[in-house]
Amino acid sequence: MPKSCCVFGCSSRAGRDDVHFYRLPRKKPELLKKWLHNMRTKTAKVNSNTRVCSKHFVGGKKRGLNDVPSVFVWRKDCPGRRPPRERSQLPASRECLPLQDSVAVSSREEEVEESCASENDQLSEGELESGMSEGEILPTITENPVDKLEAQVKTFLEVERGLKEHIISQEQIIADLSAQNKILLEDRRFHFDLIRHDKELVRFYTGLPDADVFTTLFQSLTPFFEAGIIRSSSSYKAGEHHISNPRTPILSKVDELFLTLMRLRMGAPLADLAFRFKIHLSTASRIFTTYLDLLYRHFEAMKAKLWPSRAQVDALMPEEFKRHFCSTRCVVDCTELMIEKPSDPDLQRATWSSYKNHNTLKALLAITPDGCLSFVSELYGGSVSDREIVESCDFLTLIEPGDSVMADKGFKVKDLLEKREATLNIPPYLEKKDQLSHQETVVTRRIAKLRIHVERQMERVKNFHILDFLPISLCDISNKIFMVCAWLTQFQPPLCP
């Protein structure tokens, strides 16, 4: 079989060309890979008859077993780029052809002559007569650079004036769109006027009976606004109580109070309130903290008026109390609020309630016989007993001689009341008896029937759903939250009309 070179573009053939032929090193894969890479040949085309001629080796000969072909047509260096041609500089002046030879010149010379003639027309007739003769060379008349720059400056000034007018028009468009956006935002923002005329919605969102009661509550806070005790929502910071804010508030004070009551009544997250009122999350947080503190101080100042006198209690006492428990001054009970488990072991132990089997906070509430809230204690840990709360709070200081307090069996404070010359009305104990006597059963039923109103009052307080579960982040202000929610129930109709 005649031998020929397998390299693309090579026509070397045995018997015709004075060359040597070499087999590919198929038994050496790494070396074969280098050969194929240089030859740009696929492995599938390589067999025992595949040859490469000596033209593709440096020096025209394979010099060793590991020599690799490297001379190919496509590896020839490309000729270098031709250097740019030198351009002749423009002459400083142009020669003007004589008038008698103007007919016989070439087309290029005619263009030069016409250009020179047009430029020379700008000269005065006296200058032509005094300074020119036939065959004389004329200087080139060029454009004045100052005039050219002035034209460019004028163009730039016109462009600048147009851009300024465009900017002014765009600013006006932006202002119009901002005004429209503000109107649309006001339409989408949740505010009190949307529900003002619907009593059910007012009760649902605020816990107050109607818009008139809401207005009364807001007006009662007016002295705080006028005294500058509260700052607007746009710049209030916790711990600051004096107003010095030049900016316009984001929300009206009515809507800020509305937001706070929604947080208390519905237990709505601050992110939800921020979305509803179209404000920032931090702004919603500042509003809630501000108005919670304001309401707490407002109600705290009226705390002394919350406890009615003996005469007021007797005047409003229901007939059922008058017949059987006419000396009753109040009905008391304790309530517990679920809280998040603290990380501190001491706090876990202090707030653990064996009754609820959960970490809780505990408070004492008292109502008058007609069902009005008359006393609210501070919150204590869930491990504290009812007796310890009665001893710690100032409830006993309000009891007068001759008063009686109605409570459940768990209230073992009889000795504490006797020190105040007061009595305790609780259902009788079974003790070692098999069953209660008829008289004891009747007393138990009567006390249970009347004591149920304090349970209803606690349910009213817990209808403010922020108290459903208090996270650790709210425990610092949990006392304010509980007391404000309890005092807000005073705006609701009496339990015993």
Q: Would you kindly provide a written description of the structure presented here, covering whatever features stand out?
A:
The structure is a single chain. With 497 residues, this protein is an alpha+beta fold. It has 18 helices and 9 strands. Strands 3, 4, 5, 6, 7, 8 and 9 form a 7-stranded mixed beta sheet that branches. Helix 16 links the parallel strand 8 and strand 9 (423-425). Helix 8 packs across helix 10, helix 9 (270-277) crosses helix 10 (281-301) and helix 10 (281-301) crosses helix 18 (478-488). The protein is elongated, with a radius of gyration of 52 Å.
Assign a percent range to the helix content. 40-55%
Task: Quickly count the helices.
Answer: 18
| Secondary-structure content class | alpha+beta
From the structure provided, what is the oligomeric state, counting identical versus distinct chains? Answer: single chain
From the alpha-carbon coordinates, what is the Rg to the nearest angstrom? Answer: 52 Å
- Arithmetic mean pLDDT: 82
